[in-house]
Amino acid sequence: MAQAAPARIGDPLEDVDTPALLIDLDAFERNLDRMAAFCAEAGLRLRPHAKTHKSAHIARLQMDRGAVGLCCQKVSEAEALVQGGVPDVVISNQVVGRHKLDRLSALARHAKVAVCADDADNVFDLNAAAGQVGVVMDVFVEIDVGAGRCGVQPGKPALALAAQVAGQRNLRFAGLQAYHGSAQHIRDRAERKAAIDAAGEMTSETVDLLADNGLDCAIVAGAGTGTYDLHVNGGPWNELQCGSYVFMDADYGRNLMADGRAFDTFDNALFVYATVMSKTRDDRCVIDAGHKALGNDQGFPQVLDLPEVTYSGPSDEHGTLDLSEARQALKLGDKIKLIPGHCDPTVNLYDWYVGVRDGRVEALWPVTARGALT
Amino acid sequence: MAQAAPARIGDPLEDVDTPALLIDLDAFERNLDRMAAFCAEAGLRLRPHAKTHKSAHIARLQMDRGAVGLCCQKVSEAEALVQGGVPDVVISNQVVGRHKLDRLSALARHAKVAVCADDADNVFDLNAAAGQVGVVMDVFVEIDVGAGRCGVQPGKPALALAAQVAGQRNLRFAGLQAYHGSAQHIRDRAERKAAIDAAGEMTSETVDLLADNGLDCAIVAGAGTGTYDLHVNGGPWNELQCGSYVFMDADYGRNLMADGRAFDTFDNALFVYATVMSKTRDDRCVIDAGHKALGNDQGFPQVLDLPEVTYSGPSDEHGTLDLSEARQALKLGDKIKLIPGHCDPTVNLYDWYVGVRDGRVEALWPVTARGALT
């Protein structure tokens, strides 16, 4: 069921079949380097999120640059990473259900694997699963620091759960998972900072409360690409879990920096390559990339180098480009690069990355954990 | 990169790992039978759309019930269908670009393959590609009957293109592709009928114009699940291309019948099975199905049998259920069935169908053309 690659190494870019998922390798490597340098300078551990790229190869490139390991959301993603040579994986998410727990504990015999918890019964289940295969598993207590999704409340509920984890024979209390997901996309930087400062305060109080009760939070993890630079300066976090920085996307490009400019620390390195497949009118054309080729949940893609051309009205296999303001004609068969609205769900639609440098295909990397849902 | 199946045949339903794509086999078979019976009675050819199910196995079940062949949107889907035993495939879409044309003509040596065109240059390219491998390929002229996507205008532009097709040595003019995509989702039945009647009028006039010029439209194709029953009674269509009827979805369930009831000719046969993975508050819970498990472009899923529970706020791997009105408690680890908002892009996220009957897994079918983008 995996698809054939849409290109061959050495092909000129124009020869890549569409839709295809392109990586601009220069921009991508700059992004890897920038985040690695930032974390090194700030004295923070970097554990990039593999939910974005789902690639064991990219994970290894991140570890080559100093990442301490990877994190991910699903047991099946962790399996793909470990099979692909990543020795240290944190599932920054809850794992619930017998089959998943069996797989999690089995995997923990082959690599350093940790998981998050926000429920007392789940902690007992984790302990039983670990005990069954004779491993001691690291467990983070997830606290809800404002996103309102998973996680126990900071403070006493977190203390109670951490104490329970610490009391299990086959579990080790590893620290806190304190990620504020929705803060990543707050446009104004001062408001974004306020959300993270508030999260930091709750988290620090919880760290202190746990310390007062003899529970050491060795790792306090969190942060995404939208707030990576706000988890510094004496805040509680010591391990960042950013994912999207490797690629960027149109939605993160709508965040603002302190001076009001668009967020541009990281470069757009991921593109959906698409073809004009129907051109029956001068003022618009149809391209071969719709909902099955693009994650549109955070807005439609932008057309690279053609800001006056807008994408709209996607259906499953088609998108429409409004050419009424276009300064450059687009004709049948022309190929364009789209900056995806949201990189993570876009990547999940493809079997292959096509790595491009200097106008030629240099790499074909499988999207190892594409469709890793369970 | 294909994922392991989330179940084993014989497993009780509750044992299926999540998220998983379930088919209620009884409902699914009823849907297949109902559409087959409708077309037989109406004297219409049925060529179901494989863009919905992307499964060679389901395609064969449809042909067993009288379908004349399948249609699809992509060359790669056609390749998967032919490799899976389907001998007759129409690509109800334009095929543009050298690699795709090479693949299309190569495939035409192994099965009956047809394609749509809406551009004169593309017709020359199709002819050249067919000639290169020594096949004569059927080409439909696509006309825009109101959807405003692909297709030439009805009438004289269609005549000109059809005459061009007919004049090519390696092409055969097969008829008209006259599909009104956006009409499928018009809620009010009278308005839906008006859109299809208008499309029918344009199409009939074009058929007559072509006949006056010696061009026979052997096949006039179109229709989707939302309008399948409106392409009858002397209208121009003789081949229906419905796809979603095999599964239904929440969006089609918002269409109305003539008497104002919800459209219920076909039963919901496709579900995303999901698990409650976080339950830290009484009034809501988090399930393990977000954007990577559900096509949400036509609205969020409904929770089967729990209409008072609403799904909201999906992120990539999570969805939230509002339980404030729930009449039945949901606890950590409980599994629920979601009716997807839109079946086609949902199916495309999975490697496996899990066919269920009488509470047990009876079939595991690969989603053969999952991710078939090119």
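DSSP finds nine helices and 17 strands in chain B.
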